[in-house]
Amino acid sequence: MRFFENTKIDFISKRRVAYAISIILILIGIVALIVGPKFSIDFTGGVSLELDMTAPTPEHSALGIDQVRQILVDEGITDVEIQTIKGGDDQVFFLFKTQKVDDTFEVQADEDREEREEEFVSTARIINLMRTHFPEYTDKPGFIRLQEEVGPRTGEELKGKAVMAILIALLGIIIYIWWRFEFTFGVAAVIALFHDILITVGIFFITGKEISLAIVAALLTIVGYSLNDTIVVFDRIREDLKVYRKESYSSVINHSINETLSRTVITSLTTFVVVFCLYLLGGTVIRDFAFALMIGVIVGTYSSIFVANPILVEFFGKRQTSRKGGIKKR
Amino acid sequence: MKNRKFRNLLILAVLLVTIYFLIPLLPIELPDFWTDRRVRLGLDLQGGMQIMMEVDYHELPDAERDDAVRSAVEIVRNRIDQFGVAEPSIQRVGRNRIMVQLPGLQEFDRARELIGRTALLEFKLLATSEQIDQTRERLDQYLQENIDDYPFLERFVLLEEDDPMRGILEDEEEDEFEEVAGDIFTRLTSSQGMPMMVSNQDLPYVQRLLESESFVENVPAGLMLALERENRLDPRADRELFVLLEKTELTGNMLENASVRIGDGTDLQSPNRPYVSLRFNREGSRIFEMITGQNIRRRLAIVLDGVVYTAPTIQDRIRGGEARITGNFTLDETQDLVIVLRAGNLPAPVNIIEERTVGPTLGADSVRSGLSAALFGLIIVMIFIVIYYRGPGIIANVALIVNMGIIMAALTILGAALTMPGIAGIILTIGMAVDANVLIFERIREELKSGKTVRSAVDAGFSRAIVTILDANITTLITAIVLYQFGTGPIRGFAVTLSLGILASMFTAIVMVKALFEAVITNKNRTELSI
Q1: Do B424 and A278 touch (CB under 8 A)?
Q2: Strands B417-418 and B40-41
Q3: Does some domain include residue B482?
Q4: Domain total for chain B?
Q5: Burial of B453 (0-12, 13-18, 19+ CB in 10 A)
Q6: Do A224 and B116 touch (CB under 8 A)?
Q7: In terms of CA atoms, which chain B residue is nearest residue A281?
Q8: What is the torsion angle, in degrees rounded to the nearest 10, for the CA atoms of residue A291, residue A297, residue A300 and residue A302?
Q9: How far apart are CA B142 and CA B218, in angstroms?
Q10: What is the pLDDT along chain B (531 residues), one digit of tens a residue?
């Protein structure tokens, strides 16, 4: 079996269309960064709590989200976001989230903490309310599935660290590609990577999904994956530039993209399939992470064909037409 | 040819090591040393609690800050130790943070309370040998009579061997034929025949007994039990169970200072050896002089939060409040002891700044869904590869499975925990590992098309593809390493499995797939290759 045998698609001539699409998507990403995407409690500080409140017997009716919310509202807790998560076997889980944490969350003694229970929402307070109001639904060993409290300061620090991590990764990549190919290739690759990150962040912004620590990890993985694709093509360009000495840059690059096209598609396909499996079957904890990777695989494949290589053409096209000098080393 | 032999040996060795570490994952009976070699699950899969603490030392002078953090780590470690959690991890993170991981723990509130408490350092005298004997007798008798309250001690309940009715009777009736051993406590505390020593194996039982109020109430009046602290160098070493006088002779806040000193050559007690020097305040000095005067030759235990750190013997009456603790100490041990002694009046408060708990049900759900996602992904990819590449596709699939095995084995060897993002990393590797093979196969196809023989097409395909594989994978490795540096816990797990996956896929593609290819080609001496 073979996909794309002897294709001769002229990718380079269509690059302006691709630029237009990319620029629009990138703008969304930039807007998202300026407006501020939704950050998870990893970055803002806050409380997150998942409780198993499945009906104890079939005779009990399943709890609704409104019943649960009403109890919190009656206690004056209004700024908590509640979601229902359906587990297997008619299980009902509730996810409580709030980013509103007391600034003095970080306290030493437990007595202080109890005094301030009234002022802010702690996981313990929600747990106690649920235990009091729904004793039958909460009396089980696995009642608390997830309980997280993050102080606001840790989150702030993490934001800085996350941005640093992404920048350091990009810098490392430029240096490596510079060493192995030449500087132009490195710049083209990194532009493509910025493109991928911004678009993924933009899509998270549009879909209203939270940027958590795991999503930052996904962004870095996308960087790695997209780069993988880009480099395979770069590698071929480096080789082809030596073989087809008389051809123009754009035709050599076009040729290289076509030669590697079936590999690009197969790898993207297998990677997409596994990430999609993870998205469908991997459970709630990992779903958004898998979603980010799904976007990343698509955008990464697109950018290595339509962004990184055309940018090379732009750079080289200005440099010369006779192609003296060519590519540095192998 | 020599090269090829070496390569085949390498492949064999990798396979054997991998299999060795995968076998414990199967549900079969194996010796302990082997089952211990099982990949560890992270907190998010196993369930457990993670706490990040910060030592607030901004009021301390620079010179004392590091010591304050070290004292805090020691106190936290000591308390966690009493908790009886298997494999806790207490790490100092950065300059003034402490991260505690308690796998399998669910008593969120209790852990919080225990860790947040102020440290208590006390000096208590050891009981006399008559008192110790009396305590053992009393506790042996108590356990014999009240064994039903302690179901975890059921191995001390013996059925009379020869009774013909055994096994025929109902459970309740069977009770009448049971005999309860009369020396349970003595047996639990006589490791290798040494009195009041608890073996690592019996330790959890003793800890549970010490937590039981009704058990502790049966210790003779005026006495109490306290375990020796865990041996840092050998956590599985036997631990002494001390019988102490309940009365606290001195507390940590009567201690003015503690420091490590090294005796000079003329020092009779510790020539050229490290010892701990103590200085008490005025009240402390007075009490200390009295105690030492009245109890020469007896042992005085230094107890932090109910755990005995050391119990030196009183050599002489000590006036003036300056004392030294000598013994066969290493420098590290004396430093540890000083940290403990200073913990009595901790100058810097410790704040909890982050808490995360995962319940066991969520962990189990994650394992299940992670496995099914991995399995489905693997099957779909494998079917696709066989349809697309046929024969060589089978080779690629073998490589893929070996790849998964290597990741798991390497995780075990590194002692790294498998986390949910770690599983995601493995799943991602399934997709990406195929890439190396795809690169090779596509290259071979091209070479064949250009009219080369099978042999030279395979050779050329491999040697050309290898350059690409290295370049593409090394850049991914760079991001994985950055990710490892940046992340904590679960994210690190992802970085680790991703890196391992990349390395393993390079190995399987470049070394193993090539060997298999060559084997197929030489054996059949073929002129055609269906790829």
Answers
A1: yes
A2: parallel
A3: yes
A4: 2
A5: middle
A6: no
A7: B373
A8: -110
A9: 7
A10: 567 888 889 999 999 999 988 888 777 777 777 777 778 888 888 888 888 888 888 777 887 788 888 888 887 887 777 666 777 888 888 888 888 888 877 666 667 766 766 667 888 999 988 899 899 889 888 888 888 888 888 777 765 555 555 455 445 554 555 677 778 888 888 888 778 888 888 888 888 888 888 888 888 888 999 988 877 777 788 888 999 998 888 888 788 888 888 877 777 667 778 888 888 888 889 888 888 889 888 899 988 878 888 888 888 888 888 888 887 778 877 877 887 777 666 556 777 888 888 888 888 888 899 999 999 999 999 999 999 988 889 999 999 999 999 999 999 888 888 888 888 888 888 887 888 999 999 889 888 888 888 888 888 989 989 988 988 888 888 888 888 887 766 778 888 998 999 999 999 998 999 888 888 877 655 666 666
A213:B366 CB<8 A: no
- Tokens 């001769």: give the residue: A8
In a domain, B278, yes or no: yes
Q: Quick check: B377 and A214 CB within 8 A?
A: no
Asked if B475 lies within 8 A of A228 by C-beta distance, the reply is yes
Same domain assignment for residues B445 and B479: yes
Contacts of A236 in chain B (CB under 8 A): 468
pTM, to two decimals: 0.74
Q: Residues B422, B516: one domain?
A: yes
Instruction: Tell me the chain B residues in contact with residue A225 when contact means C-beta distances shorter than 8 Å.
Output: 432, 476
- Residue B113 belongs to a domain: no
The minimal CB distance from B370 to the residues A221, A271, A282 is found for A282
Q: What 8-state DSSP symbol labels residue B117?
A: S
- Domains present along chain A, CATH in parentheses: 12-40+154-319 (1.20.1640.10), 46-150 (3.30.70)
* Residue B326 and residue B378 share a domain: no
CA B360 and chain centroid, separation: 18
The CATH number for B461's domain is: 1.20.1640.10
- Rounded Cα distance between B285 and A3, Å, is 89
**B330 and B187 within one domain:** yes
